[in-house]
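Recap for those who missed Tuesday's class. We walked through two folding examples back to back. For each one, the amino acid string is listed first and its predicted structure tokens come directly after. Nothing is annotated here on purpose, so try labeling regions yourself before you check the end of the notes.
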Amino acid sequence: MNTLKVKHCSACKMPFGCGDSVEGKECWCNDFPPIFNPFDIEDCLCSNCFKTACSDKIDEFVATITPETAIGNKASFLPETASIIEGIDYYFEDGNYVFKPWFHLKRGHCCKSDCTHCPY
């Protein structure tokens, strides 16, 4: 039996089911990049607020990257994840995946495919 903990989002105050269940299973938020300092937020965020906060942090980081600083950036040293996240790693345009700069930075190098958002 998987019993979700009910928490209230520290941003919007809405109740949500935390994936860190009573049985100690991992939370859905672990699928996101580990880019938060635990002191950045009061407590857990709901999935919508977490995704927004994560995207904002990533956008702040990406804005500091130049082609000269892209290689060896800290995103390339994050643990690899098995999935990519819409709005964080990519978005859809005309039915096609368009990878965002964060996705490219995590890869750690240019793939030479003339990508729209290549930071290299």
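Example two. Treat it independently of the first, because the proteins are unrelated.
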Amino acid sequence: MVEADELPEYPLGAEDRLDSHYFMAWERRRWLNSDMRLKGTPECRALYFDLINIAYDQTPVGTVPQDLETLAKLLMVDPGHFRALCKLDYGPLHKWTPCICEGGEVRLMHPMVLRTLTEALSRKEDNRAKHEAANAAKRLQRLRITVAGYHAELAKNDAAIRWMDEWLVQEGCEYRNASWIERAMRSWSTHMFDLGQARNGSLR
């Protein structure tokens, strides 16, 4: 038995999800040459692989309950038989180790599963950032074109376009109609006037 305070803290929380992923990365060559595959029984290998798939739908993602009866139910096998298999050197829980999750719950984690998930979540975050950047660029371009219809010189001012875009976002504008664009332009003018007044005051 290991004291809970001595267990590693699982780095992923309930908010870390891969719900849109219907597949998982599997390092084929690493698996083919692993001790688990070479030394485990066919039944243990099958349950081991099944458990990894189950972990992807658990919370936190990548972990499984440590209770053997619960695991046996998830794997749809007899609890007594499952306990016996887990006593083998290369049983279904090979390299699954206890960890502390959010809320202090003790669950089982696997280093390979965690590494694969961490890489997948990192790619997800990168894709989200790229998507948001692309959307922001399109939004700025649309705003620039609209402002040009009112004031061609102002539309060439990158700082003004970015400031008005941020103002519209902060104001909760969902549809940028003429009224909102005109308000944004007036707010920009007021902002620049106030900025000029502040600068003049500091020079006195």
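Answers for example two:
The longest strand covers residues 97-100.
The radius of gyration is 28 Å.
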